[in-house]
Amino acid sequence: MNQHSPVGDGDALAKRNSVVLACAQALGGASPSIVISLGGIVGSQLVTDQTFATVPVSLMQLGIAVGVIPAAMLMRRFGRRNGYLLGALVGATAASVAAAGASTRLFWLFCLGTFACGLYGAFVQSYRFAAADAATEAFRPRAISWVMIGGIAAGVIGPQSVYWTRDLTPAAPFAASFLAQACLALVAMLMILQLRAPPVAKVASGGGRPLGEIMRQPKFIASVTAALVAYGLMSFVMTAAPLAMVGCGHSVGDAALGIQWHVLAMFGPSFFTGRLIARFGKAQVTATGLILTALAAIVGLSGLSVAHFWIALVILGVGWNFGFIGATALVTDCYRPEERVKVQAANDFLVFGSVAIASFSSGGLLHAGGWTSVNWLVFPPVAVALVMVAWQAFQKPAVPA
């Protein structure tokens, strides 16, 4: 940590909260990696039409999109910590329902569980904003990065939970993995109890500028476009990857380890992403992430070996990290303190709504056109997002004072 940086004593609370939230991220972030690793595989065992195999994963993404606004409203009324405790309880219940669906071979019950896992994910996704709430402008990108570092542990905890528990219930394949997921959510509650975030500002409904005015800002348009492309394409490719690997004759273990390496690549760069943003700029780091996403598709098109899948997933993960953290940092420049709750919720609703759409379309496209089609469709959205980010970079900065 740079001792000569302007982030000093004034960021003591932000630093403490960032560490606490990173620990919570390590546990809560394991939930989606378990659903992503197993959702399509379990789904394929429960339905005859394989077009619907990835619906459980897509429903998790839909749950995140549906949950972000209610989660924001709850935290605005009751505070971050109480909201996160409720979210973790929802997560434990959701994983238990998913386990019951896998055990009873009821596709609708399994889908209900994964959808509710997405509701938990809506709370987890806002950890990055909670860290930024108490931070100075100089420390804000690093606070976001610190929280995202928790995803490194999540990238190990989630897939390893699958690896070690997948065969514990032979009569109900993978049910034990979802029970392990429920336990992780309960342990996350112990971390959340240590949170000392400042209370969310209680302002009158509609406080600050109208949401439409904020959303018309060039920086907001560009940052949300970049975030939804970075996250949407990552979800689009990642959802299809485990099924594509199994379809190419690779093992479930190879697929789970591929997701593990992918998740590690998603969060590993967070050790230095904040510093890269401080040195090179938010738009530049975001654009680099988008370019890496396109590179991952090029690798995916070049072969079908385990190595090709894993390398593509690793590059995709790094691209997501740069693109999503950079775009998140851009969003924090677009609102005043009294506007943060509604703007954060609007941002996440747009981002995770697009992620849900991408995830829903992934399984059908994989079934219809194969892994090649999935990768070819990466390039047009990346091109659009790069143009938007470049456009924003040449705008005069407008600080919401």
From TrEMBL:
It comes from the Bacteria. The keyword Transmembrane applies. The chain crosses the membrane at residues 20-43, 55-75, 82-100, 106-123, 143-165, 171-193, 220-247, 259-278, 285-304, 310-335, 347-368, 374-394. GO terms for molecular function: transmembrane transporter activity. InterPro entries: MFS, MFS_dom, MFS_trans_sf. Keywords: Membrane, Transmembrane, Transmembrane helix. Residues 218-401 form the Major facilitator superfamily (MFS) profile domain. The keyword Cytoplasm does not apply. Pfam families: MFS_1 (PF07690). This is MFS transporter. It comes from Bosea vaviloviae. The lineage of its organism: Bacteria, Pseudomonadati, Pseudomonadota, Alphaproteobacteria, Hyphomicrobiales.
